[in-house]
Design goal:
heterodimer, A: 10 helices, B: mainly alpha, two-stranded antiparallel sheet, 11 helices, globular, disordered C terminus, binds adenosine-5'-triphosphate, binds magnesium ion, ABC_transporter-like_ATP-bd (chain A)
């Protein structure tokens, strides 16, 4: 469904992604884990076209998308919930959700999806007219995911959905991620620092270090891997 | 206290202020989205006035009735100013997106000077008489003791235009996309907004409002030349900063406050210092409330 082939991305002179190759199959949840500054966010921003790669290829359903403007990439069904949630602070909850459906023309289906996300997160439904910026961190994460779902993505990129949230909320968010994957067959590309959690929901994982993919395997194998255990699973701390 | 005189000054201030507000909206909307002070905005206004002048001249010679001249000349001014606004953004600002902030600012100054001189060459530096496009007779004449029919039309038109704009920004898809882009441009892209289009739309709307302002003022003042955009632009910019640059209700309020300050200043103190009042107010606001009356107290943005 999505394939990165030797992608190189730069910020000025900083070489942030070095020959990154990643493959995501239809219907699966894959995760990309790595330490701070490894290049995980940059990978997602390269895919979405916000930080276009300088070389390499990104194929979405067989079509090259590198160099395409972000809004065209979104229109193909590739959406992102970015790091830090990025709720529009002065739009209300319902306006934020409208923005998620910005490119859609099927008003009646949009209405259905709106009901669906309000059902998924009743908390948001209670806060429809509240400004996005005044929501709590957990609520903002729910809103960010809902906003992306409003686009009916076929591939959803999630950047650190657990960041800064209480364990109970994290658990809830991860249940929803699983549910989205199972119910609507949405393929999910999950970036996480919380490797333990990520490898529990994902079928496969990639490990990234200083801009390079250093390891890839099934989640079970990665969970059992000594190096991964030591570096990312907080064992022996 | 002489209430009649007070009322006269107040209404005069509202008339002036409505027009400052219309033009201030263009500054504030552009700033809200791309954080650029579009110095060429005053010139877009001036071009609107000249377009209306020329169109009205042609239509009068062709023998059109007065009301149709008003509508067609205003429409011509709006379309022409909007095309200039759109083009200025495309050639002078878009290529500099992502460049250091000073670069587009210099480009804006350059555009302003270029447009002034281009109209100077095409139209000479003389003031040209601008015939009032509004019908002075009829029911409007007796609607107010203080205001002329033209002044009533100025207040009414500005109010309608500003209400329509507010509804558009609040409820339309493009309006929401504009607000989203102003709040977080990259995130707007990530939900599928074509930010280039939103920026163009902002310039087109701001320029159209300036053209409406131009038809209104020129009709009231009775003459125009290539330099009128400079002082009105400066005043409208002051109004935008006064209200809180980037804030749409701020621009409207800032315009009215500025108009009234000038009107009371000239009426009660001295008419020699009209511009001094405006800029004194600006300085005071910048010292005591740098984010403006309705601006977010996010000083970095200002
Ligand atoms: N806008 C930017 N300008 C310059 N360098 C940047 C920019 N964004 C990221 N970088 C650099 O690129 C590298 C990768 O950053 P990135 O944000 O992709 O890491 P990450 O894996 O997402 O980290 P984290 O887990 O902390 O979110 C870092 O060295 C970072 O300093
Ligand atoms: Mg990151």
């Amino acid at each position: 469904m999505l394939e990165l082939v030797n992608v190189n991305t730069y910020y000025g002179n900083i070489h942030a992604l070095k020959d990154v190759s990643i493959k995501v199959e239809q219907g699966e949840i894959i995760t990309l884990i790595g330490a701070n500054g490894a290049g995980k966010t940059t990978t997602l921003m390269s895919i979405s076209g916000i930080v276009p790669p300088r070389s390499g290829e990104i194929l979405f359903e067989g079509k090259p998308i590198q160099g395409m403007p972000p809004h065209e990439i979104v229109s193909m069904g590739l959406c992102q919930v970015p790091e830090g949630r990025r709720i529009f602070p002065h739009l209300t909850v319902s306006e934020n959700l409208d923005m998620g459906a910005f490119l859609r023309k099927d008003a009646s289906q949009v209405k259905q999806d709106l009901d669906y996300v309000y059902e998924l997160f009743p908390r948001l439904s209670e806060r429809r007219t509240q400004q996005g910026g005044t929501l709590s961190g957990g609520e903002q994460q729910m809103l960010a995911i809902s906003r992306a779902l409003m686009a009916r993505p076929r591939l959803l990129l999630l950047d650190e959905p657990s960041l800064g949230l209480a364990p109970i909320i994290v658990k809830q968010i991860f249940q929803i991620i699983r549910k989205i994957n199972e119910e609507s067959r949405t393929t999910i590309f999950l970036v996480e620092q919380n490797a333990n959690l990520a490898l529990q929901v994902a079928q496969r994982g990639y490990v990234m270090e200083t801009g390079k993919v250093t390891m890839t395997d099934t989640s079970d194998n990665l969970l059992a891997n000594e190096e991964v255990k030591n570096a990312y699973l907080g064992m022996g701390e | 206290m002489d209430w009649g005189y007070f009322k006269e000054l107040l209404m005069g201030g509202v008339v002036k202020g409505s027009i400052y507000a219309l033009i201030a909206l263009g500054y504030t909307m552009v700033y809200g989205i791309i954080e650029l002070i579009n110095f060429a905005h005053g010139e877009i206004y001036m071009i609107g006035a000249f377009t209306a002048l020329i169109a009205a001249g042609v239509l009068t010679v062709a023998g059109f009735p007065a009301w149709s001249i008003l509508i067609l000349a205003s429409a011509a001014a709006v379309v022409w100013s909007a095309s200039y606004g759109y083009t200025v953004e495309k050639i002078a600002y878009r290529p500099l997106r992502g460049a250091p902030r000073l670069s587009p600012l210099i480009s804006a100054l350059g555009m302003s000077i270029f447009l002034q001189n281009y109209v100077l060459l095409a139209q000479t530096s003389n003031f040209m008489p601008f015939k009032n496009l509004f019908p002075e007779e009829g029911f409007l004449e007796n609607i107010s003791e203080v205001l002329s029919a033209t002044e009533v039309i100025i207040i009414f038109t500005s109010a309608v235009v500003m209400i329509l704009l507010s509804l558009f920004i609040k409820y339309s898809t493009t309006g929401k996309a504009m607000r989203a882009t102003a709040q977080d441009r990259n995130m707007a892209m990530l939900v599928g907004v074509n930010v280039d289009k939103v920026i163009s739309a902002t310039f087109i709307i701001g320029s159209s409002l300036a053209a409406v302002g131009a038809v209104l003022i020129a009709s009231n003042m009775g003459q125009i030349n290539f330099f009128i955009g400079f002082i009105v632009g400066l005043k409208a910019f002051t109004a935008a900063v006064l209200g809180g640059i980037g804030s749409i209700p701020g621009a409207m309020l800032g315009g009215l406050v500025l108009g009234c300050t000038e009107s009371f200043g000239t009426g009660y103190v001295s008419s020699d210092y009209e511009d001094v009042f405006a800029f004194t107010l600006l300085v005071l606001i910048l010292i005591f409330r740098p984010a403006g009356l309705l601006g977010k107290s996010d000083i970095q943005k200002v």
